[in-house]
Amino acid sequence: MVFNYLTTHRLKLCFLPLSVAIAMQASRISTQDLRSFYLYLEKNFTSLTIFSISLILGWTLYIMKRPKPVYLVDFSCYLPPSHLKASVQKIMHHVRVVRESGKWGKSDENDYLMDFVTKILEHSGLGQETYVPEGLHCLPVEQNMVGSRKETEEVILGAVDNLFRNTGVSPNDIGILVVNSSTFNPTPSLSTIIVNKYKLRENIKSLNLGGMGCSAGVIAIDVAKSLLQVHRNTYALVVSTENITQNLYVGNNKSMLVTNCLFRVGGAAVLLSNISKDRKRAKYKLVHTVRVHTGADDRSYGCATQEEDEDGVVGVTLSKDLPMVAARTLKINIATLGPLVLPISEKLLFFVTFVRKKFFNSKIKHYMPDFKLAFEHFCIHAGGRALIDELEKNLHLTPLHVEASRMTLHRFGNTSSSSIWYELAYTEAKGRMKKGDRTWQIALGSGFKCNSCVWMALRNVKASANNPWEDCLLKYPVEIDK
Q1: Among the ranges given (14-23, 46-55, 212-221, 399-408), the one the predictor scored with the smallest mean pLDDT
Q2: Which of 79, 384, 450, 473 makes an SS bond possible with 329, Cβ 3.0 to 4.6 Å?
Q3: Known catalytic residue: 410?
Q4: Annotated catalytic residue: which of 208, 243, 253, 414?
Q5: How confident is residue 198, by pLDDT bands cut at 50, 70 and 90?
Q6: Do 261 and 88 contact (CB within 8 A), yes or no?
Q7: Which of 162, 180, 208, 214 is catalytic?
Q8: Could you report the per-residue pLDDT of 143-161, keeping only the tens digit for each?
Q9: Calpha distance 231→203 (Å, rounded)
């Protein structure tokens, strides 16, 4: 602790004796010294003028060319209506009825597959109040384009409506629109649905990201950040969602059934700005984005693939290489992010350990930097219980640091790319976000990708109206069975 304090505050500690020395020297200045200085300025007036003008021009050029700060004005997470809640028991009963009707799979495999799904659900970390789309509540299941469009439109428009209400920003002020949905990408696109609904202006810079997995939410933020560096004094609307209706797997492949157990309805809308005056009302400032893509490696490329099973039913296959690929990609992301955010004390410890291992003792373990010194809050993608457990262990986090991720998984399930926003909403609702706090959002997705966002709170942040945790906050955190 002492070492970390000394290295972190080294500039302040050095500045104190320097200030004392300057003050002592200034106290010895006489009237004659001041007169000599004035005569010097008078004699070299032209040179000083040229130097001052050059300095001002250089400073002006720097101000104009430096990256424009990106502010997060507010965000909104979609809260589905209560009639879409589905307990584990209700889900299992519904699935059993559908399978026994012959509409799903072969009857001689029902018991075996039902036991498998039950076991996954019981150990998934999901609670009894996650949300399933309306079409999947029906008997028989309504899995069609109409139902898929209805689900996605309700999620997107619900989140965006609330965001516009909370911020007071007019849809006509939006200059950039980025929407991400991995597996549901109809024509017209999801971004066009938003343009049409809110009558966005004709010169809107609109993008629709597809097929990029659960980490696409951070990618969308990074894309919006880049566009905000080019287009000045404007707002960027980022919308992250996933469709459950279309992606329900109705086959018998165990690997493909896992996604049915984890994914649930959800979505988020985020308003970014590069307008200077918005700093006063913004919640956060975007500090860093780090993206890592290991898709050049065949095992990374094929670890999560949408394809047909042996019966021709479309689903997402998770390969046995997934844990190894995820760990390797995460390691690269951490190695890239670390030098940007860690205090000098952690960088020195890492370097010393590296040198010792490289030249003196190869059996020494690599030093894992303490990221708790860099961040106050962690929003780990709620992709599953095992993912959260592994990151908690490897990053040496406390239960409090991963509470937002665990509770989001329990209350809302895996909402794909929007899960990190439900986690941030949880932190705000609990009143834990203080001015200057740093938050690390980290998400992993197919490809394979691992992406990070770092935010800094500009004030003590309170939860916005219609926070998705409003109706259940007092019940959380809950104890989750092992």
Answers
A1: 14-23
A2: 450
A3: yes
A4: 414
A5: very high
A6: no
A7: 214
A8: 899 999 999 999 999 999 9
A9: 12
The verdict on whether 9 is a catalytic residue reads no
Q: pLDDT digits over 281-300, tens only?
A: 999 999 999 999 999 999 99
Rounded Cα distance between 108 and 102, Å, is: 11
Q: Under DSSP, is residue 70 helix (H, G, I), strand (E, B) or coil?
A: coil
Q: Which of 188, 228, 184, 236 is nearest to 209 (CA)?
A: 184
Name 418's Cβ contacts closer than 8 Å, sequence gap at least 6: 77, 78, 217, 240, 241, 242, 266, 267, 268
Tell me which of 377, 379, 401, 450 is the catalytic residue.
377
Q: What is the pLDDT of residues 266-278, one digit of tens each?
A: 999 999 999 999 9
For residue 161, give the nearest of 62, 98, 262, 237 by alpha carbon. Answer: 237
Q: E strand or H helix at 74, and its extent? A: strand 71-77
- Residues 459, 283 contacting (CB under 8 angstroms): yes
Q: How far apart are the first and last CA of the chain?
A: 34
pLDDT band for position 185 (50/70/90)?
Answer: very high
Active site residue 381: yes
Count other C-beta atoms under 10 Å from residue 405's C-beta.
28
Please give the Cα distance from 210 to 180 (Å, whole number): 6
Interatomic CA distance for residues 214 and 415, integer angstroms: 8
Backbone angles phi, psi at 284, to 5 degrees: -140, 160
pLDDT given at position 77? 98
pLDDT of residue 178: 98
Residue 214 annotated among the catalytic residues of the structure: yes
- The Cα 129–Cα 141 span in angstroms is 20
Catalytic residue among 243, 252, 410, 451, which?
410
pTM of the model: 0.88
